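Appendix C reproduces, verbatim, an entry submitted by the partner laboratory led by Prof. M.T., so that reviewers can inspect both the input and the predicted structure.
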Amino acid sequence: RPAGDWLILGTGGSARAAAMVAGSVGAGFLVRSRDPARAAGLGAEMVSLGARPGDPEAVGLVVNCTPLGLGATDPLPLAVDRLPPSAAALDLVYGSQGTAWVRALRATGRQAIDGRTVLLGQGAAAFEYWFPGTRAPLEVMGAALDRALR
């Protein structure tokens, strides 16, 4: 995991999950949203559950938990030049060619992945839940995912 706190973009269910995971790995979190009141509400809720507020100067990971990137004409969830200098990025959105945000970040040499990795992990966890004692065939699942997104 990248060192530092997490900047979470969005306030929906995946943002709540990201904030909880940040807390579970010892990272603080910050929330950015189009609606500052929702961002403050999510932040307060997560703190009440034991998550630690983050330091804007210590962001090591930016997580896009918004739907921005699903549409071809969507703006980037965060301008590349607004990402902290050493931060990596995880875009929960995925598509056949990745997302414009991930491509833009990689073009500047930044570490960035799209949501396919998360989707594969969710599928593997579901597989292993429904078939106890059986390891998910990650290579097969990953190849199927790649084929489906072509």
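Residues 1 and 25 are 9 Å apart (CA to CA). Additional entries are available on request from the coordinating office.
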